[in-house]
Each structure stands twice: as C-alpha cells, then as structure tokens.
Amino acid sequence: MVRVLATGVNPDSDATVRAGGVPIPGADADVSDEVIPALTISYFLNKNLAVELFCCFARHEIDAKETIAGLGEIADTWIFPPALTLQYHFNSMGRLKAYVGAGVRYINFFDTGTGANALGATKVDIDEAWGFTLQAGLDVPLGNGWSFNADVKKTWLDTKVTWRKSAGLGGVNVVGKADVDPWIFSAGLGYRFNLGSVFGHRAEAAPIAPIK
Fold first, then answer.
1. pLDDT tens digits for 92-143?
2. R_g of the chain computed on alpha carbons
3. Strand partners, 132
4. What's the CA gap between 15 and 30, in Å, rounded?
C-alpha cells in the first residue's frame, strides 16, 4: 500500500539551556509546528501484519522561550524524519480498517542555520536522534484499491543543540538539551495492490517433450 498524505508535525518540545556549562535559569526553547507532504509505503506480511515506512522532509524554526524569549528565533533547520513501524490491522470492523503500530524513528538535522542570531553564534549544530514511536490509524475503502487514511503518531526522542562561540554571551558555546517528542497527524489517500500484478507472475517451466 502506498499513501500520499498531508501531515502536521507538532513538536511537544522542552529544553534546558547552558552557556559555557552554566545553566541559564528558566531558559527554554520551542520548535515550530509545520504542515508538510508525506509518503508511506506498507508491505503486508499477512492479512493482519504489515511493515510501514513513513518519510518526509520538513523545515522548522527554533525560538527562545521563557527567560530568554527576547532572543527570538535562535535556529532554523531542515529535518529528515523517517519512521519504521510494525502494524496490526483489525478485520472485525466491517468496511473500516483500523490499525495500531509501534516502531522507531530517526531524525537527521541538516542545512541548520543560526536564525535571527541574537546569540551571535558562528554556527549551530544539532545531533541526530533516535526515538520510540507509537501510531494508530484508520483506512476507509473507496473502491478499486483506493482508500482514505487518517493516522496519528507519537514519538519520544531527545537531541542536543550547540550554538558555537556565541558572541552575545561572551564567546562561549551555548548548549540546549531538548526533548522534541513530536505528534504527527496525517490524512490522505492510499492505494493497495498486489506486487505480482505489477511485476508479473513467474512463468511456469515448459514441459519437457518425451524422447522418441
């Protein structure tokens, strides 16, 4: 099954911030919400079990909060956050096809910038991260292999953000330890098909003619 989805990425973020190794009391940071296109590919092992790969790209801003809120946007980054889940699909709800899943998510941060750079950082680094993911969803068949899909995923992960040589704070590195923990809401269309129909069935060997 292949699905094309409109996806809302809503990080439930929380952070602790240190400058030169010293905690900044009350400092926090927030990762922006975004709406993006996404794609999933599912392979059914049998009528109940499937493996799903979720993939997309998104660009987020990181804003200072609480006691450092006056700094505004302190970083921006692109992310590549694929998730791999094992799903169980229920077959006891008539036309409605509900499922639940669990798996892992990997997030790679790239093309990271300094935002408005009120910290005066020379660059920003964000560590890649792994996290545990749960999901639940529903497919509503539309006929001829097509279906409408609604899905929600919750991931728990943390990462480290480093602002290098921040001139605004005496030229020291500023480090944020962040729990990102995003909610990911998706809705869109799916199409289910047999691989044999795409690649064709393997032809049977021709019978060997008897020797006369």
1. 878 899 999 999 999 999 999 999 888 888 999 999 999 999 999 999 999 9
2. 23
3. 104, 156
4. 8
Token pair, residue 93, equals 């709800």
* Alpha-helical runs (H) found in 141-206: 195-199
Q: Which two tokens stand for residue 151?
A: 């899905």
Cα separation, 149 vs 113, whole angstroms: 35
At residue 32's C-alpha, the angle toward residues 26 and 37, to 5°, is 160
DSSP-assigned letters across all residues of 68-108:
TGGG-EEEEEEEE--EEEEEEE--SSTT-EEEEEEEEEEEE
Query: What are the extents of the domains in the chain?
Result: 2-15+30-118+129-156+181-193
**Interatomic CA distance for residues 91 and 139, integer angstroms:** 11
pTM of the predicted model as reported, rounded to 2 decimal places: 0.84
* DSSP 3-state of 195: helix
* Tokens 């899909």 belong to residue: 149
Q: Is the CB of residue 111 less than 8 Å from the CB of residue 80?
A: no
> Alpha-carbon distance 56 to 37, whole Å?
7
Instruction: Give the CATH fold of the 2-15+30-118+129-156+181-193 domain.
Output: Porin (2.40.160)
